[in-house]
Amino acid sequence: MSPTRTVELEGHIIDSGTMGRCFGVVMDMGGSFEVEEFEIGRHKNAETYCRMKVSADSEPTLQEIVHELHQNGATLSDPADATLEAAPDDAVVPVDFYSTTNHPTYVRYEGEWVDVENVEMDCAIVVETEGSEAPRAHTKVLNAIDEGDLVVTGDTGIRVEPPERPRDGDSAFGFMQGGVSSERPSESLIGEIADAVAETKEEGGNVLAVCGPAVVHSGGADHLAELVREGYVDAISAGNGFAVHDIERDLYGTSLGMDVETMEHPRKGHKHHIYTISEISRQGGIEQAVENGAIQSGVMYECVANNVPYVLAGSIRDDGPLPDTITDSIEAQNAIREQARDADLVIMLATLLHSVAVGNCLPSTTKLVCVDINPSTVTQLMDRGSAQAIGMVSDIGTFLPMLADQLVDEK
Amino acid sequence: MSPTRTVELEGHIIDSGTMGRCFGVVMDMGGSFEVEEFEIGRHKNAETYCRMKVSADSEPTLQEIVHELHQNGATLSDPADATLEAAPDDAVVPVDFYSTTNHPTYVRYEGEWVDVENVEMDCAIVVETEGSEAPRAHTKVLNAIDEGDLVVTGDTGIRVEPPERPRDGDSAFGFMQGGVSSERPSESLIGEIADAVAETKEEGGNVLAVCGPAVVHSGGADHLAELVREGYVDAISAGNGFAVHDIERDLYGTSLGMDVETMEHPRKGHKHHIYTISEISRQGGIEQAVENGAIQSGVMYECVANNVPYVLAGSIRDDGPLPDTITDSIEAQNAIREQARDADLVIMLATLLHSVAVGNCLPSTTKLVCVDINPSTVTQLMDRGSAQAIGMVSDIGTFLPMLADQLVDEK
Amino acid sequence: MSPTRTVELEGHIIDSGTMGRCFGVVMDMGGSFEVEEFEIGRHKNAETYCRMKVSADSEPTLQEIVHELHQNGATLSDPADATLEAAPDDAVVPVDFYSTTNHPTYVRYEGEWVDVENVEMDCAIVVETEGSEAPRAHTKVLNAIDEGDLVVTGDTGIRVEPPERPRDGDSAFGFMQGGVSSERPSESLIGEIADAVAETKEEGGNVLAVCGPAVVHSGGADHLAELVREGYVDAISAGNGFAVHDIERDLYGTSLGMDVETMEHPRKGHKHHIYTISEISRQGGIEQAVENGAIQSGVMYECVANNVPYVLAGSIRDDGPLPDTITDSIEAQNAIREQARDADLVIMLATLLHSVAVGNCLPSTTKLVCVDINPSTVTQLMDRGSAQAIGMVSDIGTFLPMLADQLVDEK
Amino acid sequence: MSPTRTVELEGHIIDSGTMGRCFGVVMDMGGSFEVEEFEIGRHKNAETYCRMKVSADSEPTLQEIVHELHQNGATLSDPADATLEAAPDDAVVPVDFYSTTNHPTYVRYEGEWVDVENVEMDCAIVVETEGSEAPRAHTKVLNAIDEGDLVVTGDTGIRVEPPERPRDGDSAFGFMQGGVSSERPSESLIGEIADAVAETKEEGGNVLAVCGPAVVHSGGADHLAELVREGYVDAISAGNGFAVHDIERDLYGTSLGMDVETMEHPRKGHKHHIYTISEISRQGGIEQAVENGAIQSGVMYECVANNVPYVLAGSIRDDGPLPDTITDSIEAQNAIREQARDADLVIMLATLLHSVAVGNCLPSTTKLVCVDINPSTVTQLMDRGSAQAIGMVSDIGTFLPMLADQLVDEK
Predict the structure, then answer these.
(1) A155, A70 in Cβ contact below 8 A?
(2) Scanning A285, A337, B22, D349, which has its CA 20 to 30 A from the CA of A36?
(3) How crowded is residue A91: how many other Cβ atoms within 10 Å of its Cβ?
């Protein structure tokens, strides 16, 4: 007789696709299922309930199927506790550790479902049982694992809640959509993004802007600086290059040697980049340079002037780098992780590298806007399964003035 | 009391997403629904049946909802005949004509469901009732409508069958997927495409190759010519440019003036293109040039030598054009339409314009392979809702030798 | 003894690269040269003169070299008349016909240099000697050749004047540059384009806008309509799709079924496209539809209302098409050719097909602006050798509002 | 009277464009010039000599012009020694330091021209005068500057030798060309690349392969592994992701969870990536894992087995990372710099980040091949001014099997 397990699904599982996906999982993985109870949500707002018996040829196959169903929002009718195993060494997880999704997750400990804190993809879950009144569970990236950490292994006792399709029809924010269309009216879309920023700020939320160097080359830096000054941006995540270009623009009026106003290339302009770095090194860093009056405008200036925190993460293509750049990638990731956890709305502006780094740390519940001129970049960034995301293929140099116009000038 | 209508859904409606989509339609359009009967497919191969009562605030809204449900595979429990109206003039359809999808479609005439022939997107349906034993229905593009044609109008009496998700797990051919990934192993994917071609030929099917000029520039023409010679290609759909480049290659060894073997640019090479056109014009056309021995190799040569029909559709960017090019776009579309209807497998090779033209004429049931180096082109071509399609972002100049190698040399 | 010929170069031949290119031609083609006289332009505005003796192994090689030097601006010291041969048949040129570049060209007839009218790439040159006081020379595309036309053959007696590098330093308009950078400040670049449009209009020049459907999808149509209304656009070159989208927007508020303001997709919206076509067919065409009051806004409306002529060129991917669409590609090319000849500034907006068609007909002296979100499209369009061209990789949906803002609102 | 300076140009300065560029520099920067002597290279292999007097309105302008002429290969008739200034602090250069190009460079010290070692772009030049028989000059990146280093400042006493256009006509390796065409025959181009690799190895040269993760996803890893095993690759420069994917493929047969042979996605496959990292961490690193027999095939395996050194440079988007990954970007750059200096031929395979990092360290004299499916990536990588470079827009998953086929199987 084939091994069998009973699982339950509940919620708007039909139009969210959950039910179709779960049936698909069983079929694709060579199992079979029998629906035992099915209570359909007969009205628009009613939830659906489905209980089914899943069986497979072997216990391991069944376990894989059940695990996969878990990842899609099903729960076992008769759940067991999660299994825990101590990490054998620093940065080494137990062999069969559970690797997280970016959806809200719960682990069962002594019969209770414990909410996993700081949900993030591709992490281990560590359960802390001592010293606290109630047990706590949180994610840890592999390199942060300490010897002895109690790590969740296997598939049992874990529940994941993939986001549901919102009830209220159309919205510029797409639901779990990977694709991206450039055939959308740009002005209207920018209007929706401006609304999302304004709404987030009204609700006391936190807006994180992830910025690539093209923000400066394309002439958008002034407008981003304005958004920082006016309080629409709560944190900046960028690289050494972005900061250098932004400061070069203040010191010399150029970005990578081109005058941002006149588009002329002053001879020697290509040296402004490296001169900017050496100047800021001489000053001791960005903050000191602002304080000394050496930097007088731009995004970095407004960050310092308005206490907007920034992370400059290093990369192997950096010149310099500036003293403010975090050159160790693990340290930089940790700094980015803090920014990501605080953010309610993340706006990714013309950078793949930094956007992927931030995106890796985001739970699926954080709102996301991604703007890039390269459709492949937008597609790649939208593929991470955010519940609410807008992908826009546009020119950052025209996007930013129009966004600032909507937010600041037409206020 | 709100107007109400009862609709039915049947088949693998859960994992094909049909049911979720239908529920979504009602909700998005402001209607409500009550499920009256629901018989779930309890096993992998069992079909599901769902009957629901849909209501809306007004009769027009309800009709729109019902229409939309129809488009997604629902049928009215108590169907009425389709309404027919005579076309008022040549190329002019009645105001409320039904515009087709590319899925199998049926219209109800005198109580019977009549299969719509030559299914194609964005057409009118014309019903012929006289002179034939049974009534017939078929699609007509707008410009082909004759005064007096009986055209289906409104939403009633029309049934559409969107394709179902195949039962058998993984396949390189994706199901109704718009997106495309370049992160797939190229050799394995080419192997699958070779298998699909071989299988189509074994089953007596018809393979249509749609070719852009890049096939020649990239050095792939020899390999495509081999596929034509060996009987793997039953028809070619291309433009004037493709044919000119292919023949230039035979006459001069160059394509757009570059030697395809040595990659040198013989001076005056850029004139080979226009010289080729004038030479073929002098010969009276491609067939005559082959017969006269003026063309001795290449794709066009193999087509003539092996009686593989081709359509060369004109475009406003053509030089010349060759006497064989159909310069009127309506005439060219009609020629392409014939090719598309005959095809069981269509392979789109590095051309957006011609692939869209062919794709416009294809029913959703024709297998599709699309290869282009530009991901946006592949995405756009995959977006047309083929039930079975492979999109591959690759270099046509390496794709074709590897495909020919798999089909011909490793046979 | 090797055959030898003496050629002369004159002008700013050093910093325009002409001299380097000519020396390169001789070396690359296996010839050798001896400089006989060299009078360098010793000051910034002085011209340089160079006379050199070119020799090669054989007379045919020498002729090829000399021909190539001609194409690059060299002239024979002792020029002969051009050779003329009668076309043997309609649309058939003599075997050795001279195929044109897009640079200003002269042919020598009875000892006089005759200016070639309507310079266009890849054409034949026809000389008319009878019935006019002075002989005239003009280009003809191959399909326009009439039996008996006197066609220039061979290489002798032809002089080409490639454009010279402008003397006055930086300008947003690049000189003969194929490449394109997205790393330029968008607002400043749009400012330069606005200046070029305004300047062209002030000088009584003619601005031709070449428009793709994305102008409408992206929400830019209102702004283009404004530019037409305000007199900044003298002619529109587009396809059936552009016109249909623009009119759909007026009739239904949607483009390809998406509401351009709210970005909602009204159900049935995807039918608006085909309904629009059938409606305009019913009206008898765009002009009639405007006169009947059926169309009340948009680019096509403004064209009719302001007597701005338009060409809608057909293509094999058209739905419909509208009665106004020229479905024969040769006829359409001829209509485009007229537009191109009249234009002083051509602005290509998000279309490859129509831009290539227009670009094919332009002399190298017409100013060119090309805006597209796809860098490959911009690169391809800039590769045609315009003496003054701006290529901009941007979002047409943000470009057009900002351009209109600069030209109209900030006037 | 305007300040004046005399400069000289020598070599194939006409057809290399050097002379045109130099005249352009003077004109663009508002100077004027008078040619005093001009000895043209009257034959193909003869060099040209030009001496000119350059003047400008002010001494600073003149100095800028002269500096720019220097950068383009001109030398002062009456050269002075370079000025040296001690670095005021670690990682801080004197204000007016000379920032290098990637061309061969010489500085004048006590009347002698000293060759600058390890030429690299955007560095300072440090002159060492003590403790060695002869003075030495070499480049230092900003962060490597030590307090007291004698750094070259200003423009005097510096000579740069931009590469000359090769004499011998066509070659697949382009000369100083930024652009890239996808309209080239792929098989022939791969043949040229194979020849360049074979030739480099025959001459005892060093081939560095820079690899992105797509090498593995696209199914190319086996073929690259073969090239390593057969001795065609002397060093690998990559990131954590590449190594993880390559090892995942060995451990599980998948890359990012997709089976590279069958293209199926085993459920749980998406966890293979993170499991691979934890497994190698457990083993203590790649070398240990190979020695323990845990890794048995793939690129990393062949590197260890054949003593081919590799650098895995960390990035903020890394999972893990592997213990072998250098997480500090400055350290990683230094490791990459060593690889770059040793290389005679660099092949960049489907990675922008790592290719830019390597490219930053290369002198303009190193041969370069760059293959990527994204034309923008290829363009960006070719823009760095290599004297001999091939850019190819292709699919790495078809490129690598065809390259291996040419090098190994057809040997």
Answers:
(1) yes
(2) B22
(3) 18
Is there a contact between A267 and D25 (Cβ–Cβ < 8 Å)? yes
Q: What is the CATH number of the domain that holds D155?
A: 2.40.420.10
Contact D315 A320 (CB under 8 A): no
Which residue in C395, B379, C243 sits closest to A184, CA to CA?
C395
CB A243 within 8 A of CB A221: no
Q: Which residues in chain C have Cβ-Cβ distances shorter than 8 Å to D374?
A: none
Same domain, residue pair D286 and D143: no
CA A179 to chain centre: 17
Tell me how far apart the alpha carbons of residues C14 and A213 are, in angstroms, rounded to a whole number.
37
What residues contact B348, with CB distance under 8 A and at least 6 apart? B210, B354, B355, B358, B359, B368, B369, B370, B371, B372, B381
Check CB contact under 8 Å for D169 and C19.
no
**Residues A58 and A134 grouped into a single domain:** no
A20 to B16: CB separation less than 8 angstroms, yes or no: yes
Q: Copy the structure tokens of residue B384.
A: 């047309």
Q: Tell me, what's the ipTM?
A: 0.90
| Torsion D333-D339-D342-D344 (CA) sign | negative
Cβ–Cβ under 8 Å, residues B407 and B198? yes
DSSP labels, A123-185 = -EEEEE-SSSSS-EEEEE-GGG--TT-EEEESSTTEEE-PPPPPSS---SSBSS-----S-S-
Q: Å from D140 to nearest chain B CA?
A: 39
The half-sphere exposure of B182 on its side-chain side, counting CA atoms within 13 A, is 28
pTM of the model: 0.92
The answer to whether A128 and A148 are in contact (CB under 8 A) is no
Pairing assessment for the beta strands C367-372 and C345-349 based on DSSP bridges: parallel
Q: Give burial (CB, 10 Å; 0-12/13-18/19+) of B17.
A: buried
d(CA C81, CA C334): 31
The answer, yes or no, to whether residue D170 has pLDDT greater than 60, is no
Check A356 against D277: CB less than 8 A apart.
Answer: no
Residues A70 and A87 in one domain: no
**Is C172 a member of any domain?**
no
| Residues with pLDDT less than 70, chain A | 41-45, 132, 165-182, 267, 410-411
Q: Residues D246-276: pLDDT tens digits?
A: 999 999 998 878 888 877 777 677 789 999 9
Give the Cβ contact number of residue C181 at 10 Å.
19
The HSE-up count of residue C277 (CA atoms within 13 Å, CB side) is 26
Domain boundaries, position D15: 1-77
Do both A235 and A95 map to the same domain?
Answer: no
* Residue ranges in A284-365 assigned as alpha helix (H): 286-291, 299-305, 329-342, 353-360
Highest mean pLDDT among B370-379, C78-87, D56-65, D296-305 belongs to D296-305
**pLDDT range class, residue C179, cuts 50, 70, 90:** very low
DSSP string, A27-43: HHTT-EEEEEEEE---S
Q: What are phi and psi of C5, to 5 degrees?
A: -140, 150
Which subunits count as partners of chain A given 3+ CB pairs below 8 Å? B, C, D
How many domains, chain B? 3
Query: Which strands, in side-by-side order, build the sheet including B48-55?
Result: B32-39, B48-55, B4-11, B75-76
Instruction: Give chain A's contact residues with B (Cβ, < 8 Å).
Output: 14-17, 19-20, 23-24, 26-28, 30, 32-35, 38, 40, 42-44, 165, 167, 169-170, 178-179, 182, 375-376, 379
In a domain? residue D174: no
Q: Where are the alpha helices (DSSP H) in C141-271?
A: 186-202, 214-217, 221-229, 240-252
* Residue of chain D whose Cα is closest to the Cα of C374: D376
B150-177 as b/e, with b when 16 or more CB fall inside 10 Å? bbbbbbbbbbbebbbbeeeeeebbbebb
* Residues C310 and C380 both lie in one domain: yes
Q: Which of B46, B61, B77 is the last residue of a domain?
A: B77
Say if residue A219 is in the same domain as residue A232: yes
